Amino acid sequence: MDVNAIFLQVVTGLQSGALYALVALGLSLIFGTLGVVNFAHGALYAIAAYAAVVISTNVGSFLLAIVVVPPILFLVGIVLERGLIRYFYDRPHTDQILVTFGLALVIEETLKWIFGANNVPFALPEWGQGQTIFYSAIDKIPPVPIFQEAPQIWMPFIDGFIAYPTWRLLLVVVSLVTVLGLFALLQFTRFGLVVRAGMRDPQMLRFLGINITQRFAIVFGIGAMIAGIAGVFGGPITQVAPTVAMELLVPSFLVVVIGGMGSMPGALIAAVLLGLCLSFSAEVSWLQQIIIYLVAVVVLLVRPRGLLGKKGVAE
Amino acid sequence: MSNPIQDTRQNTRMREFVLIVSFAVIVILGPFWLPVIGGYEALATKIVIWCIFALGFDILLGFTGYLSFGHAAFFGISAYVTGVMLRDVSGEILIAMPAAFAASLIAAVFIGFITLRRTGIYFAILTLAFAQMLHAAALSSILQKWTGGDNGLTMDTKPSLLGLEMQGLTVFYFSSIFLIIMFVIARQIRRSSFGLMLRAIKENPMRMEYTGVNVQAYKLSAFVISAMYAGLAGSLMVIYEPYVATKFLNWTTSGEVVIMSVMGGVNTLIGPMIGATFMLYFENVVQGVIGEQWKLVLGLIFVLVVIFLPGGFMDGFNRIRRLFGTKADPRRHNVPDKPQRASDIYDRKNTAGDYAD
Amino acid sequence: MDAKPLLEVRGVSKSFGGLKALNDVNLSIAEGTTHAIIGPNGAGKSTLLNCLIGLLHVDSGSVTFDGKPLKGVKPYEIIQRGIARVFQTPQIFPGMSLMQNVAIAALARQDGKFKVNPHITLDAGHPAMEQAEYNLQRVGLADFRYGDAEHLSRGDKRRLELAICLAAEAKLLLLDEPTAGMSRHDTNRTIDLLKEIAETGITKVVIEHDMHVVFSLAKRISVLAQGAIIAEGAPEEVRGNPKVREAYLGGSHE
């Protein structure tokens, strides 16, 4: 296998991993802080994708969608938490699964009702279309306008040049930015400090008189917002249909579980790992279809708490 | 001089007999009373099949406390094997059904052994992962020539039982007999010491472990038994309608049995069957009235049940009975992974009665 | 006292990472006695208990019960051999009646670790129910036999747990802080019940903090501190032992 093929597969892997990473990150954040298993997370992604497509086609500006949809999802998250989820903190995990599963179903059916069961076409904005060129030396790029005018990234070790869809790269970048943003929020703000402490030892926090439940709504909102970001940028890739909610949830859940419930770094690593597995197994199509499940099963059996999971969490 | 133990035994056996007979009568008369409320004959068969599925599911969820999101695996495997046997080997269901049974048994032991090593959410996801794997496999290029891939498995064969063609009401009565038998079995499990052990595992698995019980073995038994029910249902489904859809293996099917069981009320056996009836009625009859939004309405009902009526419809009936004075305790959770109070459809009287309840 | 030791712990050591939780522990529990294990917090009592019950594998040394080694034997198997355990927080089956609670233990005794016999209905005449009735009588809970275990007071839950252990016909009863969190009244009642049970010849190993309980029940005491047995003997001997005083940094609360 030559360098170019490998490079392409790695980038593809990162891109599919990026989408799972965003959804999984929100899931992991919510589970790690609130202890809630949110089966409705894929539905939140779907809401975002639909909102984005509506805004970008009706108002004509994709940029507007980028700006408006994540905050909308943030509010949706807060409303959900205050209105429904918080009544389930004391109930067993399985009840949480059931209610969020039901919620996902309701959201999916509502979207189907409003938009129909079929795929809503989601066109890429002009600035996001086309290819990006990876090149090893500037003279390796063919003197064709499409390539010459496209964004160019220097990648020294490849052979010649490789063209890759710009939007998919954008998704990787956006994911990275989101991850870093979340990391900064958790590491460098007081809010983040309380959340992290709450993840580690909620009882201690309560004992210290710090009201963690107020912050739960915000955390849920953030989780939803991240799903929102994923929905806006991922929508054009995954298609916008009611079924996309669960289609994305299952692998994302596996990512969370493989990475370790409640571990966000774990979720990221697992997402990248799975993305790479998917892209490297693309040649053997039957393997590609089942590889996610296979890896999940193997990991869960060999290391039940996941790659970086905390011991004793929902085992 | 009367023997109190013998008297109690007589009473409980009498009660049990009445229950079974009433159930059998309601089931057999399905094609007659169902149309009265807007249903139709063929729907009765579908309901019977899903009742079998839900009944077995309750043994795993309601009794033993394990929420599986992958039971479509057994429904689907059985359906596909039945389909392949009918299409490629013989239209004789006495050949197809045992083959399907064997296939789902093997799958159940294998999958159960692996997934039951974990509990709670991990278990749920592992079962989901296995089922999705099988779903992907059925769609894959390798198995397509058997499964028909995306289009599902179609056949020209008409299934028959020793020459008797399986169609219409015949399938209904055939399935009903199975349902009644499976109900009797489920009831017997509940009333037996074996059933008590299963339910004790749900209450406090650690205590079970420390009372010298091989919890894993019991869990696996419950899993395999419930998978057998699912497999039987899958097989009957193909006999009822000689077509195997890929969605039989999909999480949507797993989700449906979860919804029916929880909506009806887990740990009651009757509850999940009521849930199945309700859901299928909704899908096939109510849809005609309110149109495509039936699933949305059903979803809303499900969510409301989970929030406000964790014990399902059965719990609802009990609460109504409570209003009229009889003693029946409301349920707090759907499926505990913390210990909870189990609720039965029978009153928990403070006198000798059916001990297994 | 020349009774054959029912439980023999020889040279047991157990480390977790760098921490040596148990260091060459030797114990000899004679049949029919009540043997207390005391020690300050963190001494390794829970670890020792878990090693005895097969939950933890010992790094070195051996545990022998009734003449047979417990190495590599599964926990439920160990229980079947005749050990029963009582937990700090009484572990019972809350959603079931008292009769059912004890019947489960009786069934585990009669049917063994696993038996698929769904054809046997558990009704009034079933031997397990007789056992349940009998053992509930022994602990004084027979009046509540059909009530839900959930509603019992902590003290009564402890009694129920003991009834479960009795129904399991255990030879050795491991009691993990049996009076933890109990009122004076409940503690005394529990002590009385344990004394009654002792009369049946059952062997008891009690881990306790409450010295009143220890001195009321134990014929022999082993003191565990920092993973090692620092003293052992009859209660009076241990009481006066300066090493024990030192380990507790200020002594017992009587």
Structure characterization notes:
The complex is a heterotrimer of chains A (315), B (357) and C (254). Chain A is mainly α and 315 residues long. Chain A is built from twelve helices and three strands; from the N terminus they run H-H-H-H-E-H-E-E-H-H-H-H-H-H-H. Chain A has helices spanning 3-34, 41-59, 62-83, 93-115, 145-149, 166-188, 190-200, 202-207, 212-238, 244-259, 264-280, 285-302, and strands at 131-135, 152-154, 161-165. Chain A has a three-stranded mixed β-sheet with strand order 2-1-3. In chain A, helix 5 links the parallel strand 1 and strand 2. Chain B is mostly helical. Chain B has 15 helices and four strands. Chain C is an alpha/beta fold. Chain C is 35% helix and 25% strand. Chain C has nine helices and ten strands. Chain C has helices at 45-52, 75-80, 98-111, 127-139, 154-167, 184-198, 211-217, 235-240, 242-248; strands at 5-16, 19-30, 34-38, 60-65, 68-69, 83-86, 172-176, 203-207, 220-225, 228-233. Chain C has a six-stranded mixed β-sheet with strand order 6-7-8-3-9-10, sandwiched between helices. In chain C, strands 2-1-4-5 form a four-stranded antiparallel β-sheet, covered by helices on one side. In chain C, a hairpin with a 2-residue loop joins strand 4 and strand 5. In chain C, helix 4 packs across helix 5 (154-167). Chains in contact: A-B, B-C. Chains B and C meet through helix 1, helix 8, helix 9, helix 10 and helix 11 of B and helix 2 and helix 3 of C.
* Number of contiguous helices of chain C: 9
Shape of chain B: globular
Class from helix and strand fractions of chain B:
mainly alpha
Any idea what the shape of chain C is? globular
Whole-number mean pLDDT of chain B: 86
Biggest protein-protein contact in the assembly: B-C, 45 and 49 residues
Described by strand count, sense and barrel closure, the largest sheet of chain C is: 6 strands, mixed
Describe the biggest sheet of chain B?
A: 2 strands, antiparallel
- Give the end-to-end Cα distance of chain C, rounded to a whole number of Å: 28 Å
Strand content of chain B: under 5%
Order of helices and strands of chain C: EEEHEEHEHHHEHEHEEHH
Beta-strand percentage range of chain C: 15-25%
Distance between the termini of chain B: 28 Å
Mean pLDDT of chain C comes to 85
Output the number of helix runs of chain B.
15
Strand order of the largest sheet of chain B: 1-4
Listing every helix as H and every strand as E from the N terminus to the C terminus, the arrangement of chain B reads HHHHHHHEEEHHHHEHHHH
The strands making up the biggest β-sheet of chain C line up spatially as 6-7-8-3-9-10
